[in-house]
Amino acid sequence: MKKTVCVIGLGNRGTEYLGFLKYFHRSKVDIFALCDSRQQALDDIAPRFAVPQERRFVSTDAFFAKGVLSDALIIATQDASHYAITKQAILTGYKLILLEKPVSGVRAEYTELRDLAKAHGALLIICHVLRYSNYYGKIKEILASGQLGEIVSVNHTENVGYFHFAHSFVRGNWRSEAASTPSILAKCCHDIDLIAWFMDSPCVSVSSVGSLRFFRKENAPAGAAATCMGGCKAKKDCPYDAEKLYLTDPFYKAKFIKYMKRTLTGKAHNKRSDVENAVRNGDYGRCVFACDNDVCDNQTVTMTFRNGATAVLCMNGFSDRMFRECHIVGTKGELVGYGSKLTMHLFGGKTTRVRTSPIHLSGHVEGDIRLISGFVKLLCGETDDLTNVTTIDATVISHDIALAAEESRRNGGVPVRMKET
Ligand SMILES: NC(=O)c1ccc[n+]([C@@H]2O[C@H](COP(=O)([O-])OP(=O)(O)OC[C@H]3O[C@@H](n4cnc5c(N)ncnc54)[C@H](O)[C@@H]3O)[C@@H](O)[C@H]2O)c1
After folding, report:
1. Is residue 278 assigned to a domain?
2. Interval 375-408: pLDDT, tens
3. Residues 139 and 192 in one domain
């Protein structure tokens, strides 16, 4: 018999996961019910997945009032609602829950969810999708094989991309700590999760420096206006001009921004006039130097692990492309990862280009697809192996490190000793 899944949150992530369930797993899984606080989202998305009116919910209270409706639940709402919705899901009796990251910026909340899940026999998995990609899986496999000897250090850089940073962390949903979390948690809990996974040893100390260096009022160029389409005289040379990014630049220049129209308008299907209206009048048309953003646009975190190894994570919002770099040094060799290219050098031996994936997909998209495949295997009872599954226990580790980094940064980089969890 087919298994059933409900999804709460029908934005970018929720819709992507629904698509993967429908296109890759339809023989095993049915989408049973959907919930979103926006009627527009339900109207747009539910017909695509043949979910009838009576199983569309515009509030989580109405959804949970029905009791347990499916074998598994996906929660893909915005960050600030994760704790309350997940708590309600566990208390209602859902036993398999896939929750978007970050879980919460408050330690008492994410540890409560961990303990609650355990007490209620629920498996709570967090979407640290990169771990599921062939690329990072291969790195983990090489480290575990011992070919590099003992791990000495990891140097990892998250190049967010100038246009992506402006979209999400200056104009958009993750611009303010109060509405979401510090950027080192919102953006880099994946990177910290990867580093902790590679190290396989508890983190004992964290220090960090960083700031909101550039996207501030005082850096506005002469002639800048409050909005890009509101008479800005600096827009010609401004790479952040929203009119170019969302409306006029050709696809190759606007990069991923064109996929983000849904975020601008709240609609799944958009006419040019919808996007233009959003750029003219909405948050995403604001000058990047005149927003209410407060999260760091650059931050460096140094971590020491109990096995003596160290790691440095650099996050910056200023690269031309979105890509991650990872340099892992062991006592017998090193791995150099650049975007999706991975090279292994064994000291005194061979240098090899490591093949990670038969087809080229962004590590993120590939991770997303494989996360859902792993989730479906667990759902269908095809495996009960939780090795390398990103359960809430792993998340507590990455979130603890991110919060310690933030504490250190606020105190001028003073190291924070990690408590045993
Ligand atoms: N795993 C990853 O790599 C990854 C990548 C991007 C975003 N995210 C995370 O995924 C989550 C969703 O991101 P997104 O880009 O899809 O956001 P989104 O804003 O596109 O979608 C969120 C949806 O949830 C709905 N919603 C909000 N509050 C709700 C509530 N209380 N009840 C029901 N519905 C509610 C909104 O109406 C919206 O449709 C965020 O927490 C984000 O940080 C994770």
Report:
1. yes
2. 999 999 999 999 889 999 999 999 999 999 999 9
3. yes
Rounded distance from Cα 262 to ligand 1 centre (Å): 12
For residues 302 and 278, give the distance between their C-alpha atoms in angstroms, rounded to a whole number: 40
Atom of ligand 1 nearest to the CA of 41: 39
Q: Do both 193 and 252 map to the same domain?
A: no
Q: 323: which strand partners?
A: 159
Residue with tokens 């004992």: 204
Residue 326 identity (one-letter amino acid): C
**Which range of residues forms the domain containing residue 224?**
218-285
Residues 17 and 141 in one domain: no
Residues with CB under 6 A from ligand 1: 8-14, 35-38, 41, 60, 76-79, 81, 100-101, 127, 129, 173, 263
H or E stretch covering 89:
helix 82-92
Q: Which of 63, 100, 180, 265 to mutate to test the pocket of ligand 1 (most atoms within 8 A of CB)?
A: 100
Span 224-280, pLDDT tens digits? 999 999 999 999 999 999 999 898 876 656 555 656 788 999 888 888 899 999 999
User: Which of these, 62, 122, 57, 125, lies nearest to 90 by C-alpha position?
Assistant: 122
Pick from 285, 310, 339: which residue ends a domain? 285
Q: Which of 363, 376, 360 is nearest to 139 (CA)?
A: 363
Does residue 409 sit within a domain? yes
Residue with tokens 């020491």: 304
Return the residue matching tokens 């990609």: 133
User: How far does the centroid of ligand 1 lie from the alpha carbon of residue 159, in Å?
Assistant: 22
103 C-alpha vs ligand 1 centroid, how far in Å?
Answer: 12
Question: How far is ligand 1, taken at its centre, from the CA of residue 17, in Å?
Answer: 12
User: Is 129 within 8 Å of 366 (Cβ atoms)?
Assistant: no
> Residue 243's CB: how many other CB atoms inside 10 A?
18
